[in-house]
Amino acid sequence: MTENLRVRLADTDIPLGPLDGRYRGYVADLVDHLSEAALNRNRVHVEVEWFIHLADGQVVPGLQRLTDAQRDGLRAIVTEFDEASISELAETEAITVHDVKAVEYFIANRLDALGLGHLGSLVHFACTSEDINNLSYALGVRDAITDVWLPTAQKMVDAIATTANTAVETPMLSRTHGQPATPTTLGKELAVFVHRLNRQLHRIANQQYMGKINGATGTYAAHVAAVPHANWPVIAQDFVEGLGLTFNPLTTQIENHDWMSELYDDVARFNQILHGFCVDVWSYISIGYFAQIPVEGATGSSTMPHKVNPIRFENAEANLELSNALLNSLGSTLIESRWQRDLTDSTSQRNIGVAFGHSILAMNNVTRGMGQLDVAEDALAADLETNWEVLGEAIQTVMRAESIAGTEGMDNPYERLKDLTRGQRVDAERMREFVGELGLSDAAEQRLKDLTPQTYTGLASDLAREHLDY
Length: 470
Prior knowledge:
two-stranded antiparallel ribbon; elongated; two-stranded parallel sheet; 21 helices
């Protein structure tokens, strides 16, 4: 009885996945580049430009250059691509059961109105579907990276850099293997991530987006059979480069997707570095180095009202893992194809937008999370004050330098500091007393007596400033 009364949600427009539902607002800009509709619009764009390229180049005997009005009319098919166009294509594809063939008919149906009805055969001339698809995906991925992913990533890195600059001189106890170690500054540790992430952004920003248009098995066989006198490799190269892509001169039926694998590996590496950042920030929050600014009206726990959970960084971690699961799969799957062609890439590539979407969602969370953090300088200072033993490294290294300079009694510096500090708490008084017993030169002794865990940060601030200035 209960089953019969249940509303069938499958009959509604409720989205299946969170990127098109709960998180739509954060990733919607990708729809313009990597949705099925965007793919079809890009297919129309490639087909139209190939038509214009062949006609204006008078590549096929009998062709004449297009008029400005005809050229503008053809390109308007792309610029005016809308929901009605999407519906029409869907209806045509339901009959053709072939998405690229539906695009061919979609364009051909508009030629009469432009006085080009006699050139229906020029649409999709000498092309295999993959000629159109590889270029369409390259354009979509390029624009998604350039217009959406990179600006989102740079905004996030800038947010991290802002906090790093704020804390560039704030001393912090380091932990190697989870144990107290040589102090640094909080800003320097954040700057390390800024530097690493920016390096990946530089690689991604300089990515090549490759394309081909060389026929069913990459041989220009149909092209040569139809127009043997034409220099088809040059015509193809000019066309691909005219789209703003890099020409791939040697392929099978498909463009090899190596550039895609390179890009997705770089984005995945960026994601993984960011994942490490989220883990570190979460841990700093956990030990009190960062205080979270409560959001008005927000609830941290359904039962513990005192809690302010680091949900932005936890959400980011999960979305980075989902993004990388897809990117790693795409990067490995797309560079293999049985003999001259199989269709595994066709299904795989439809998930590119999902992979980027989870990455963008993660970055939005990190940006928002960084805006809700305050540096807890008191907690950082208290941690340093209870770990004077970290100066053991400085003392034994000064002793080594003194020994080299000829100061007597500097034997076994490491072992002497080990006996003093290993597994023991040493306060300021005991440390200074120990320094006074070593027989150092006056200058070295005074330098060490003036040293504190808070000031033992070396060049941390300078290094951070240098690499935050980008």
